[in-house]
Amino acid sequence: MQLSPPGPPPSPDAAAAHGGGSPTLGQAVGVVGQDVVEVLRAPCGTDVPVSGAGVFDEGETLQARGRILIAPGVDTSAPGAAGVLRAADRAGAAAVVLRRGAQGIAPSLAEAADEVSTALLARAPWIEWGELIGLLRAAIARTGTAPAEASADVALGDLPGLALALAALVGGAITVEDPESNVLAYSPTADTADPLRRLTILGRRVPSWRVTELAESGFLTTLWASGDVVHRPADARFPERLAVAVRAGDEILGSLWAAADGEPLPSGARDALRQAAVIAVPHLLHHRLRSRSAASRRRYAVRALFEERPPDVAAAAAVLGVEAGQACTVLTAAAAVAIAPDVLDRAFHLASLRVAAHHTPAFAHRDGDRLDVLVAGTGAGDGVDRLARDLAGVLRGAGVRPLVAVGPAVGGLGDAAASRAGAAQVLRVLRERGGPETAGAEDVRFAMDALRVTDAVAEHVPSAADAVAALLEHDERHGTDLPRTVAAHLVFFGDAAATARYVGVHTNTLRYRLRRAGELCGIDLTDPDVRLLVELGLRRAGLIPLP
Q: β-strand 173-177 against 183-186: which pairing, if any?
């Protein structure tokens, strides 16, 4: 069901140029972007003032007045969506944001939207709630101060144009940087520019030695902690600089640096740079959103292909830039043994960078303790096995003992989940066997068949599970190592000498343990039927294959 039109959407440039007073709904949505938050219904227009952003809680109405409220877990198709909108309206909220439902807008919600004053917004599916509320708060924290005349014609997000306008405002050379000291934009510089500025512009980031100097001197700490312009005096190498952090509320978006450009900075440069920091807020917000949105959209598209039933294959293909019917394969990487979370995080980050550099489209998706990689265009000779070996090498170099499982190639993106499930089966085999580092289904097909048989039989053969459970329970209480001993006995086909060597005991001790296991569980290991069932139980428990 469609809602009545909300009126013309707020223009981002107009929103960014909104002057004076409290921020408005249109200003906030304009800065965040209509592709992130869509205005479905705004009964009072988009010029209503907003005082903040928060999470919808029907029991906390005093803090909702004038706010944009997000409602995680509620979508526009849900029966309870109308109740959320009405409750937000009773609390005086300026707007409420819901996730767009797969079935569109519920009739009860459309009816409620025509009867309340609170605006109804829909969240784009690819952005997370936590990131959205951060963007809204950052946009609202900008107080609506009118930009200086020098920057009035700069389009939202035009960072080179912004740098040029701010250079005219401040009277010096301007560099716009992100919080990691990467150069986002810079104003044209004179031939007399100092070497540090030239190095920074050519390298598109502040040289690492300079960052170290600024950090060790405490300058960066002062810059990020201060709400004002910070002065860096001239020294024997470089002229003076002024710097200011660009903030939206408590969030640091980047920094502006002003340097003398052929002549000293004017006396009013400090006040001008302070004003420039306010002007830059919507532009850096816009830049951050655009730089993140593409990656967020890709992550969402890959996750949808893996987890949604059925996935929107056409939409995912459009976001990923591949054909829906293109063959694909999923690789799954993991650590063979437990590893410190920070080590695994770094290893997966490096692996993701390697995936991004693959010669055919490939996309990494982190899922807990494993990294799934969707590789498109994976016909013969397309290097999937090579990528698996490369990922294993990256993980190994990062201090992680790697396992990389290759799923079966499938005929289109719609079957990516099947390839992922196949890779998960291969990974299970690799984990139980402790290797090899990389393998596909064909490499371990007999082991996979054994797993399938074990899984299928387990629920129908309680006697095997009961016998193994008794062994495991006894071993946990007494530390007798009976389960491993029985497993080795079965793996070595009753060869007492080989079994004793593996377990590390005398053959007489081995015979005693086997006899004791039989007594405890009421099993006769000389009976071939019993041996088969006990082996299935031990496989199910992960004790066979032997490590």
A: antiparallel
